[in-house]
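Obj: model holo form, ligand = S-adenosylmethionine.
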Amino acid sequence: MSAIDALPPLSEVIRAHGLVAQKRLGQNFLLDLNLTARIARAAGDLRGCDVLEVGPGPGGLTRGLLAMGARRVVVVEKDPRCLPALAEIAGACPGRLEVIEGDALNFDAGAHLRGPVKVVANLPYNVGTELLVRWLTPDEWPPFWESLTLMFQREVADRIVAKPGGKAYGRLALLAQWRCDARIVLTLPPEAFVPAPKVHSAVVHLTRLDAPRYPADAAVLSRVVAAAFNQRRKMLRSALRGLAPDIETHLRAAGLTPTDRAETVSLAGFCALARQLGGERGFSAKG
Ligand code: SAM
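Output (holo structure tokens):
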């Protein structure tokens, strides 16, 4: 039996350290180690990689990542009550687990991680989308990570992998799919967590592309997509009117139909429009 397998069951750890779940920290724990092992496996081969895990809680997923052979696992946890439980795991894997107490929104990845890096987390719902957007929009591409394997509420996961034509399709889908392959690899019912949340959850696996799927300036694309989906029920010619004089001409030049709505425009279409507008004198990506 390995030192990780010899650690006490998670329900015992939670009891011993008084880890009553706190809603304000988005605490819904996974106590089934078979399940956390499945999530760790969904991240692919971890050997030779540093892994960043946000919000390890009592450490169920952390154990899975270490058991899968990650070179090092760096965890960032905001709740100091979890630290003794995480210290026990660190003791079972000398030199392989670094525990950082703090807010993941202030974490400096460059200071703690060495490539190749994979990010794997059962994210707290209150900061999950914000962290994803930050990881997808670094100043420079490629980013510090090779892949993201992240648990979200099902509805957020659907928005990340959505294709044109439905309500789920919008900024998050375009942001994710412009520079990544994104797919749902696992879905989980509320009962998988303690306490059980009201909604289903899903794990999304995103693999970064070396270069964007279609050329476009990131800031221009972001402004075009934001304007289009801020008024998603309007036709493109009205929703985008503020972006440039004679927007209809630009839409047509990009191969788009001015009376279409944002929801029906493909990623390739938005990139074509961003290129068209980016070349326009006087167009500012800042808005
Ligand atoms: N990984 C554990 C599991 O799967 O059982 C816990 C997941 S729970 C959904 C989210 C975790 O993120 C909690 O442990 C919570 O304390 C932590 N957390 C919440 N906000 C955080 C933040 N801003 N930075 C770091 N950790 C945070």
